[in-house]
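Shipment paperwork, digital attachment
Item: protein structure file
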Amino acid sequence: MKKFDIKEVLVPTISLFLISAIVTLLLAVTNSVTKPKIEQLQIETENKTKVAVLSVAKEFSEAKTVSLNGVDYTYYEGYGEDDALAGYVFTTSAKGYGGDIVTMVGVKADGVISGMDFLSISETAGLGMNADNDDFKSQFVGKSGEIGLNKNSPAENEIQALTGATITSRAVTYAVNIALELFEEVNN
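Attachment content:
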């Protein structure tokens, strides 16, 4: 039987500890350097998306919060050139096939969708990611009330589901419908 040698255990343990400590320190430094830039890019993306989904607005309010079914959502009021309320931009999310899908939906003051876009989507390439195509997103424009989903031939207040990506289509429709519910909530 071999005799227990403390060096055989201690040297690899200390080496692994030092390597882990150095890697952790490097990750912390990298995070502190990149975090402000990532936050700035996120703000810029949100500002561009607000303008894109509610193009009738010339300026937007600060972020506001509204609750629906115990969940808080962020929204912005958009104002036109005459400082009249042009509509709202709601940030909503839903669980898609590949993770959370975060949307921004523009709803004009009359309750009609003026546009929708994604802040975050990570669905399957070639299937669910087709939701980020303008052909899919533009189906929501001009709709109001509750929007349905159809795989074949959509009716007036339905959208055409993406082929092979029903879960993604359902999630996006759900997120847009939440925005329409939030519109009703802030208008009461």
